[in-house]
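*** Backbone structure tokens ***
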Amino acid sequence: MGLNFRSLDRRRFLRGSGVALALPLFGSLLPSAAFGEPTPNNPKRLGCFYFPDGVPMPLPEDPSYQDWAWFPHGDGKEFTFTKCMQPLEPLKSELTILSGFSHPRSRDVHGHNNADQFLTAAPTGGGDREYANTISLDQEYVKYVGDQTRIASLVMSTDGGTGTARGTHTISFDRNGRPIPAEHRPKQIFDMLFVKRNGDSARRLALSQSALDEMLADANTLKKSLSTHDRHRLDEYLDSVRQAEIKVDKAKQWLNVPLPTVDGDQFNLELTTDQPREYLQTMFDLIYLAFKTDSTRVATYQIGRENGVGRSDHLARAVGFNLAHQLSHETKNPDGWKNFGIYCQFLNEEFGRFVGKLKETPEPAGTGSMLDNTLLLMGSASSAFHLSRNYPLILAGGKQMGVKHGQYINHAGMNFQGGPWLGKGEPWQDKAKGVDIPLSNLFATMLQRLGTGADSFADSTGTIAEI
């Protein structure tokens, strides 16, 4: 027996072609996309990577400072890496290290609350503050290039899904500040990139387009009878439906385009974090392949969730420790800074391996290397123990976009907070020793180098001339 759609609550469903679409309480989670002009010759790609729990920040008088501090020693072109950063030494001319940058509206909250705002600069806050997020840097760039590839953006994390407010598993947020679910299973990522779907895709897409057209008409009729508050909520929904239309049209466009041919036998696609080093390498390799085959030009990967929750905390087992988050709490113990530094060294080694592969690969349909045409950001939203200031940041690639490298932009200088946690007050509760630069200034600079023409992003106050 068929459903009587006319008997359904019109405030809960939209109708079209015998299909009912629920009006979600929290809006659509569809990623935003918009049409931009195609880039001639060289593509311009963006990759953003997040690691949790901050970095080793021993004070200068600590014997561990020389070897295991995360930030380099020196300034400008004259700087040296510590053992923590040593894996990046061969790539020194291809990257820039930055200190003294953070998001102004998040500097006085606990560091574990901050992954949500790393790419957005939104005041997601902590405690009793109302949670609200905004569009992330990667999705801002998707507006310009999302239609030029089969997949608008590749959103990945070690833990998968979206997580919770202030405990996010994704660093990508759409134009309405909704979290975009991240994929954590290598097999699913590989299939999405390279395995052809079943033969009735075109038929299902055609039906989807017809349903969307009729549901938009029904929504416009419904809008006339709604309150001002409900109209605002419906406007958000209509915007999501319009973006869905774009996705349907785009999917049709790509239906008959041959998929890239990639040999999946070279990967162990059933990996889990029980094999942490191989898992991390495979996730980076999948992004490399997605970029190389021009399946997407935008990727994000949240390497770990804050607060030591989830499978990502097991990554420390790659270097002989049990849980990653625990290392940040044990720096007061003998070899505590060294142990934490060895884990960060592991992350830098695998990130460096990925950067090196891009450098070694000529641009498939352009000039220079893939790295020259790819802008990469690696960082965390805390530095010292739970401190939401002086983010540890690495910017790599993009030389053919005019990005200048081989430098340490040491805005923090020696005026930084650090030291082990001794079980009393935490650095994030202390008065700041200096004033950070808005991280959005870096984001605005990146968007300009990516060719978007953007003058600003979020709360930026300018750009960074050194880059």
